[in-house]
Amino acid sequence: MTGPVVARVAHARVAGTWVADALVALSETGIALVDAGSATPEPTAPIRIDATLLPPITDAHVHLGLADAAEGRPTTLARVLDLGWDPAALPALVAATTAAHPGLDVGVAGPFLTAPGGYPSDRAWAPPAAVVGVATASDAARAIRARAAAGASVVKLALNSEAGPVPDDALLAAIAAEARAAGLPLVAHAQGAGQAERALAAGVDVLAHTPWTERLSDAVVAAAAKRQTWISTLAMHERDGDAAALARATDNLARFAAAGGAVAYGSDLGNGIGRLDLDPRELAALRRAGVDGGALVDALLAERLLPPGPTVSLLPPGVDGDAAVLAALDRARPTHIRSIAQELA
Ligand SMILES: [Zn+2]
């Protein structure tokens, strides 16, 4: 693609703000407004897009290797983030997924980094190559630099003291520093007493799941809200039939969101749920945690977690605000910005 596609759209959500009948520039780096101060000149006859455009509706926690991602029914998702699989198997999985869903953007972590013998190395669902044991800071450096070179979007770390050993504080800090040096957000699966607090203290950027092991104190939640993104994954506890875990996670997430923390919608697709689409139970669970309206749309777009993509979500032109988006989610379709001009000119 040479330059941005400049188009006049019925409605768009740009940087969290709704604009109507707006001139926008669409490029590999998302949707930008074209205005008097803009570097992009207004064309004499811009394309008209009789639709509403949003940044990509995102599921920030999927495992393509465990899902029916290549199944061809239309999806309302425009972007997914794979949080753990064999890196050698990922290119074929991503290719099959995007062949079935041409508008979809797929980001990946690659393997789970974990303490040697740690979770999920003992799980039947995890192929051996999906798990990389990290015993030292130099192991961490090697693994994280390899992920950066492979084009990963994030680094995934397992910190599950209920299912095996976890890195000690010094190694955890070294992993966080290495991810920061590589420019990759560090996403941790924190499970077991005290692990969410350890992740926060070490500088982990993102929790792959809302913490559910224990009720976190208001002080910890407030500190987390300043520094972290939490990926929701509340409905997995419903699927597990664990009402107590669901209640603890819902309470933690409600306070995190109320304190201004960045919430990202995530389903843990592949864990008890297979279809690549928005999960109504996850949406309902987020609402029960008080994440609704504009906050729910923010969670669905995950703009504080991932950079603007080469894809957008397309909705009917009458969708003119956050409430209208939530009412029309099942009509959202992923579209690659590259194809918009051809599809809609
Ligand atoms: Zn997962």
Can you lay out the helices and strands and say which pair or pack?
Elements: E1 5-14, E2 17-27, E3 30-33, E4 47-54, E5 58-62, E6 79-82, H1 90-100, E7 105-108, E8 112-114, E9 131-133, H2 137-149, E10 155-160, H3 169-182, E11 186-191, H4 195-202, E12 206-207, H5 218-227, E13 229-231, H6 235-240, H7 243-258, E14 262-264, H8 280-288, H9 293-301, E15 311-315, H10 322-327, E16 333-336, H11 337-344
Parallel strand pairs: 1-4, 5-6, 6-7, 8-9, 8-10, 10-11, 11-12, 12-13, 13-14
Antiparallel strand pairs: 1-2, 2-3, 4-15, 15-16
Helix pairs in contact: 2-3, 3-4, 5-7
Bound molecules: zinc ion.
Number of helices: 11
Q: Between the first and last Cα atoms, what is the distance in angstroms?
A: 16 Å
How many extended strands? 16
Question: Mind telling me which CATH architecture of the largest domain this is?
Answer: Alpha-Beta Barrel
Short description:
InterPro entries: Metal_Hydrolase, Metallo-dep_Hydrolase. With 345 residues, the chain is of the alpha/beta class.
Written account of the structure:
It comes from Agrococcus carbonis. It is a single chain. The chain contains eleven helices and 16 strands. The protein has 345 residues and is of the alpha/beta class. The protein starts with a strand and ends with a helix. The strands form three sheets. A seven-stranded parallel sheet has the order 9-8-10-11-12-13-14. α2 (137-149) runs parallel beside α3 (169-182), α3 (169-182) crosses α4 (195-202) and α5 crosses α7. It folds into two domains: 5-55 and 312-344, Urease, subunit C, domain 1; 58-301, TIM Barrel (Alpha-Beta Barrel). The chain has helices at 90-100, 137-149, 169-182, 195-202, 218-227, 235-240, 243-258, 280-288, 293-301, 322-327, 337-344; strands at residues 5-14, 17-27, 30-33, 47-54, 58-62, 79-82, 105-108, 112-114, 131-133, 155-160, 186-191, 206-207, 229-231, 262-264, 311-315, 333-336. 51% of the residues are buried. α4 (195-202) links the parallel β11 (186-191) and β12. The longest helix has 16 residues, at 243-258. The site of zinc ion (ZN) has 6 residues, from loops. Zinc ion (ZN) binds at residues 61, 63, 83-84, 268, 271.
